[in-house]
Amino acid sequence: MARMREISGQSLTPTLEVDGKVLADFDTGQLSAFLDANGLQP
Questions:
Q1: Alpha carbon of 5 to those of 1, 15, 34, 37: distances in Å?
Q2: Residues 9-21, buried b or exposed e (16+ Cβ, 10 A)?
Q3: Cα–Cα distance measured from residue 30 to residue 42, given in angstroms and rounded to the nearest whole number
Q4: Which of 3, 21, 22, 42 has its CA 20 to 30 A from that of 28?
């Protein structure tokens, strides 16, 4: 919980951190866009 607040500034879930980039409180559409924007494969 402390790490989640540290990286996202909030306590909402889910929170994902990849290579220093943070996506917090997301839905499947936002997750897909995040993965695409960062060249990541699910």
A1: 6, 10, 20, 23
A2: eeeeeebbeeeee
A3: 13
A4: 3
Distance CA 29, CA 9 (A): 22
Could you tell me which residues are beta bridge partners of residue 17? Answer: 22
- DSSP secondary structure of the chain: -HHHHHHHSS--S-EEEETTEEEES--HHHHHHHHHHTT---
Structure tokens at 34: 């995040």
First and final C-alpha spacing in the chain: 24
What residue ranges of the chain have pLDDT lower than 70?
none
